[in-house]
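Q: Predict the assembly, please.
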Amino acid sequence: GAGVSQSPSNKVTEKGKDVELRCDPISGHTALYWYRQSLGQGLEFLIYFQGNSAPDKSGLPSDRFSAERTGGSVSTLTIQRTQQEDSAVYLCASSLGGGHHQPQHFGDGTRLSIL
Amino acid sequence: DQQVKQNSPSLSVQEGRISILNCDYTNSMFDYFLWYKKYPAEGPTFLISISSIKDKNEDGRFTVFLNKSAKHLSLHIVPSQPGDSAVYFCAASETSGTYKYIFGTGTRLKVLA
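A: Predicted assembly structure:
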């Protein structure tokens, strides 16, 4: 498709399990971002990729969170030993990049629920 | 400390009238601002942006105003339509290596038919 694609759309898992969230950005977009939105909150930045490199990981809330990007395209956000406070909607966005401001285009998110 | 604030969690407007959504920021390094619209169970959709070198940008029914001295921006929707009912987020960014966005907490707009 032409837009940012995220999977799964919903994920319910038990506390302590690991989860993987996937993002497929718009073709040709070199910049990729992960955000999360907790209930009643705005979107919170997690990590930024330029190509396969992650020069800004400052938003990752703990070392249980990690992300990678391969081939300059698909990205995976992994949360290990999930906790209930990890419940949120995880949103991925991509933009053309190129060293100046560009609108970011968002996927529909993965709604993660930790029981 | 929240760098981008939307102090009105909700707003109701009659169809055909003007909707004005407000946003304040504290970081003087921000030089690019955007508004996004979000429907339930969907990702945010880009609406309009403005660079700090401008004080107004218009796109159809949507106009964004920027007052740098007051660190304030607003989104005007004229005329408002029922399909505009959604949550609106303002976001800000600074020229840096990442261009990441800092978002406000959103304003839920309801346009009454």
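The mean pLDDT of chain B is 95. Chain B touches chain A at residues 4, 6, 31-32, 34, 36, 41-46, 49, 51, 89, 91, 93, 95, 97-106 (CB under 8 Å).
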